[in-house]
Please model this.
Amino acid sequence: MTRYLIRRLGHAVATVAAALLLVFLAVRVLPNNPVLARYGQHATPGKVAEEMQRHGWDAPLATQAWRFVKGLLTQGDLGESFVLNPGESVASILSRTLPATIELTLAAMVLAVPLGVSAGIVSAVWRNRWPDLICMSAALVGVSVPVFFLGICMLSIFSNMPTGLRIPATLDYEFHTGFYLLEALLRGRFDIFAIAVRQICLPAAALATIPMAVIARITRGAMLEVLSADYIRTARAKGASAWRVVFRHALPNAAVPIVNIAGFQLGLLLSGAVLTETVFSWPGLGREMVNAVKSSDYAIVQGGALVVAAVFVLINLVLDILYVVLDPRIRLS
Model:
């Protein structure tokens, strides 16, 4: 296990480094100039040259990359925002926006996993019958309808539901962390928790549709394969009830692909639910990075990309370990 973890950690570090390098190069070939984006018509040639030199943006790309990596490794410095939030550290921006994305993602997965797994089980048990047709038709719609279109429809239908803020602006309550739901629960403020849930329910429901549909389809396929196995027929022949066969014998043996796709979807959502955050004006990392790309705010893009890559790689590492726990037949070699 130790050797396996060391090897996987090496792959993870290499993946994060490659992602950061690609983002570092990509953001600097954009046609926008951060000085022009910040100062607009007041950006004289002299001012542009002065700011470019002061921030080191006129240096060769290799030099800029080395300075960034050196500051990151020696001081944990991700830089400062220049356009969107001038002077504010990227770490501060990430600490403000990342918890919002994490809570939105987890809320979406809380909806997607139970509903998707349940729909997949129902479809497998009643294969080619009306429950299967209904569940798979719903899954097809869920994976096909664009999130932004669904979000706009939901905003039109549920126009009385609050959107745009994690808590109402009129609510005088101070949070010490960025995790509003968790902090409200730990403090026993169930009234604040209910308000935060009301704020997050629409974007979470919209965000949950695609992972729910994907999980349902994968669960159906995995369950159909397991339900046709010999030991399932043996369990039925011994008189085990239908639901005992499904939940005691079939579902645990179909867990690996289900956990795999659920973890993958979690990583995708944590990478930035850009469309959902944009439609619902959710103050998360995805929307912040989109604005940073438009404004050529290099530091925010680099820091956000680093965090996204690290989270995605970490989730995949945890999934690799879970495979062995769920199915001892899998060998780390």
Q: What stands out?
A: The two ends are 9 Å apart (CA to CA). Residues 90-326 form a domain with the MetI-like fold fold (CATH 1.10.3720.10). The chain has a mean pLDDT of 85. Residues 306 and 325 are 29 Å apart (CA to CA).
